[in-house]
Amino acid sequence: MAALSAWFWNERFWLPHNVTWADLADPAPGVEYPKAGHLLSALPLALGIFAVRIVFERYIAGPCASILQIQTELSRRAQPNAVLEKVFTSITKSPDSRHLEGLSKQLDWDVRKVQRWFRHRRNQDKPSTRTKFCESMWRFTFYLCIYIYGIRFLWQSPWMWDTRHCWYNYPYQVLTSGLYYYYISELAFYWSLMFSQFTDIKRKDFLIMFIHHLATISLISFSYVNNMLRVGSLVMCVHDTSDFLLEAAKLANYAKYQRLCDFLFVVFSMIFFGTRLIIFPFWILNTTLFESWEIIGPYPSWWLFNSLLLVLQVLHILWSYLIARIAYKAIMRGKVSKDDRSDIESSSEEETETTPKERLKAASSRGENGTNGHFGSKPWSQNHNNW
């Protein structure tokens, strides 16, 4: 174990040239440097945050949902069927035409009846709008609070206005209490998201979000151990800037305030593109790649840290593409009823077999002619996260 620990904490990997762990182990009285052991305090705090979330959703978000008349929908349950249940749990939740025809013959059911069973079975596991509202309200509250804290703290920090201060006198930069609380709170929240992702609403971008949370936790932990907290605090603040706006738009969507939802989505999109595609690469990556190279020079963990930031930027580009596609549909069609990550199923997806003439007549009666000026009345904003 001693040999493994010595290998993992190799000074030549973690620290700049001519710096040792001993140099950071015994600072002057009243001076504190980050230590790896500090990160362990984020785990019990993550459990505490998860517990606060449960209480918040039950006693604060729940009553708010009731005031807005957001009730738990009563979904139709699929009738018990051992054969179909086995296929659903073991083979596929969305059978193709070949499977449907085979099951239809095996059960002597109409194909549409089999389709209907699978749709009801999938919807049976879907959370209600009320559940999604409570989840989004919790995320909105945390993101807004941590953003306000972060921006107030950074406003008084010199590296907010001149990113070169992130590297002056590095790694002998004092750990202040404000920076410690900011870091550990963010780390604990992302640990809680990592845990709760397996119990929250399942979305099609589950794997992307899992990679995002893993990369975020790795970046926060890595930068803490390396005492790159200054630039790390800038990264966190840039991400927090748009997160609470997305959750606010989702809240408006669940409450059926569609115009407010559309407005918040537009604001969120503009800030997301600005922070993730402009500020992050041209401000954050510029200082981590170029200014740090000039002031302290590269070393092994420097390369890894910047690689993780580049992974994060690739995810930013992916999400920006998805958001832009939603906006494009809104402009071209006047309505976006569902994006690719939506967790709501409509019976029209699988069962509607109306003629083109009937569909045209129905669309006309609903005003789906691309001139309604909204993004749509069904939930579009199923993305979450900490983008």
Automatic annotation (TrEMBL):
This is Ceramide synthase 5. It catalyses: sphinganine + octadecanoyl-CoA = N-(octadecanoyl)-sphinganine + CoA + H(+). The chain crosses the membrane at residues 36-56, 140-160, 180-199, 263-284, 304-328. Residues 366-387 have a biased composition (Polar residues). One of its GO terms (cellular component) is nucleus. The keyword Membrane applies. Gene3D superfamilies: Homeodomain-like (1.10.10.60). Pathway: Lipid metabolism; sphingolipid metabolism; Sphingolipid metabolism. Residues 342-387 are annotated as: Disordered. Residues 84-128 form the Homeobox domain. It comes from Onychostoma macrolepis. Keywords: DNA-binding, Endoplasmic reticulum, Homeobox, Lipid biosynthesis, Lipid metabolism, Membrane, Nucleus, Transferase, Transmembrane, Transmembrane helix. It comes from the Eukaryota. Its main location: endoplasmic reticulum. The keyword Signal does not apply. GO terms for biological process: ceramide biosynthetic process. GO terms for molecular function: DNA binding; sphingosine N-acyltransferase activity. Pfam families: Homeodomain, TRAM_LAG1_CLN8. SMART domains: TLC (SM00724). Residues 86-129 bind DNA. PROSITE patterns: HOMEOBOX_2, TLC. It is a multi-pass membrane protein. Residues 131-332 form the TLC domain. InterPro entries: HD, Homeodomain-like_sf, Lag1/Lac1-like, TLC-dom. It is found in: Endoplasmic reticulum membrane; Nucleus.
